[in-house]
Amino acid sequence: MLQKRWLLVGLVALAAACNNSSNNKPSSTDTANVPATPTVTAPTFDADSAYDYVAKQVAFGPRIPGTPAQQKCADWLIAKMKSYADTVYMQKTTVTVPGGKNVPCINIIASFNPAAKQRILLVAHWDTRPFADEEKANPTAKIDGADDGGSGVAVAMEAARQMKAKNPGIGVDILLNDVEDYGDTKDDNTFCLGTQYWAKNPHIPGYTANYGIGLDMVGAKGARFFMEAVSKQYANRQMMNFWNAGNTVGFSSYFPYDDIGAGTTDDHLYVNTIAKIPTFDVIAFQSNANFLPHWHTTKDNMDVIDKNTLKAVGQTLLQVLYVQPFNY
């Protein structure tokens, strides 16, 4: 259909040219005054920069709510986002985690083009799970959270740096949420506490966006991003646009269209159900629909982080934000 359309346009243009005499040809002055059609391009995502953002987070130590590492990392994230964004909001509250313990929760929201009506929300959690419960030999060990937490934040931060340098022309809000990973696996609703708080208490009363993009575990070697079930239910068209963008810019191996039945309770669930913003999740699965082997283990460290994967997700994200934000 597209080829036929362009063929028709070409034939019409050729016919018009043949019917014009030399006296009717526009002068060089006329053509010089005709503005060129702007070509929208996405900036180049810097995977080295994103990798450094992961390493910086890991260097603080496990970002467990209620520890010094949490506050130090929060201070750094806030400072970096203030250097990039038009406006930065902080939400500081206390939430109750399984076992009845109260812990501090720090959500950070960075806003670009705050007056724009058309908006996209990016969501990534920056805390780490307090224990390696998927590691049978040492289930109480602490986790670096390089991929699970660190990579999604790093991709969002590099996108923020690029948006500072080149305005995307639309509104973008980055929600870096806290206390995502302190939950009890027997109760899904004990996860994503920072996002649940934000969804009930948005940084701006009545806040909404056209849609949201979750970024979680987006930096590991060999990662593949299969379409996730909750995302299909609430934001299938928007997710398809993202996958199409990834395939367009050369990352088809990372963004297959296969349906493997993968699904997860992640931040996007509560953005969908509480904030009512259609949101999909970019999150790595194995082909058997399980998470990658380092998930919730001490192996989730810098050794699993791959710049190629960060590049694939980050460049796709920029393609969406700059070139095809609403092509769905």
From TrEMBL:
Task: Identify the residues that the record assigns to the Peptidase M28 domain, covering every copy.
Answer: 107-320
Asked if the record carries the keyword Acyltransferase, the reply is yes
Which stretch is the leader sequence?
1-22
- InterPro entries annotated for this entry? Peptidase_M28, QC/QCL
One of the record's GO molecular function terms: glutaminyl-peptide cyclotransferase activity
The record's keywords, sorted A to Z, are: Acyltransferase, Signal, Transferase
Q: Which PROSITE patterns match?
A: PROKAR_LIPOPROTEIN
Q: Which Pfam families match?
A: Peptidase_M28
PANTHER family recorded:
GLUTAMINYL-PEPTIDE CYCLOTRANSFERASE, GLUTAMINYL-PEPTIDE CYCLOTRANSFERASE-RELATED
Entry protein name: Peptidase M28-like protein
